[in-house]
């Protein structure tokens, strides 16, 4: 059971990270502008396909618009390619000071990433979605419960992505330079999560493999499918349940790898 003191420390870490990102005003504006520009490009491409075929992989035009623009907003919230400070601290040996904190290393990582995600939701999410609402006809959920389910799914997506990136960061205990692992993660997670295109455009067997065998669809495809009500509320609940399962799995994997990494740090004389 987590103590009250540990909770306060985690909350302080999340708040500090939120305030830290508030200072990056120019980067925030530039990132929001870039996401908006790519939103127009992606939206027009998918809508041109929908105009020719009537729909794209079961998505109507309005659902595609929502999928693209909300997806552009979620990019920085979920954050596939955020800067990893932990590998640098492992390489320099500063990770030792992190281990002296009264909280677990993984918990501290998730807390700081939650603060970053909260800042992105208030800034980087709002601008692309507002632009999409202004210039396109959105598909808006028909049931109020869909919005609640979307919020839950988005929070789970952030946590799943954080655990995945933490796992990539832990490879620094063995590799020291994680650029190769980081590149592999960025490419596979982007393709497997619906970042570049809705996953249903792929063959059914491959979509099944991605949903069952990887956590990637839970990063973006799941919350977006929940929002556009693809398959109804029952399907949305199943997607959220799958996200919960993958969060539990990835957290367990991280715990095992972290224990081995810390033993290796001791062997190295840390």
Strand tally is 0
Strand content: under 5%
Classify the secondary structure makeup into a structural class: mainly alpha
DSSP helix fraction: over 70%
Coarse shape = globular
Helix-strand pattern, N to C?
HHHHHHHHHHHHH
Number of helical stretches of at least 4 residues: 13
Indicate the low-confidence ranges by residue numbers: none
**Span from first to last CA?**
28 Å
Q: Roughly what is the average pLDDT, rounded to an integer?
A: 89
Q: For the CA atoms, what is the radius of gyration?
A: 19 Å
Number of domains: 1
For the biggest sheet, the summary is: none
Q: Top keywords for this entry?
A:
single chain; mainly alpha; 270 residues; 76% helix
Plain-language structure description:
The chain is mainly α and 270 residues long. The protein has one domain (4-267). 76% of the residues lie in helices and 0% in strands. The protein has 13 helices and no strands. The chain has helices spanning 4-22, 25-53, 61-78, 86-92, 95-99, 105-122, 126-135, 144-170, 172-175, 179-192, 204-213, 221-227, 232-267. 38% of the residues are buried. The model has no long low-confidence stretch (mean pLDDT 89).
SSE topology:
Blueprint: H1 4-22, H2 25-53, H3 61-78, H4 86-92, H5 95-99, H6 105-122, H7 126-135, H8 144-170, H9 172-175, H10 179-192, H11 204-213, H12 221-227, H13 232-267
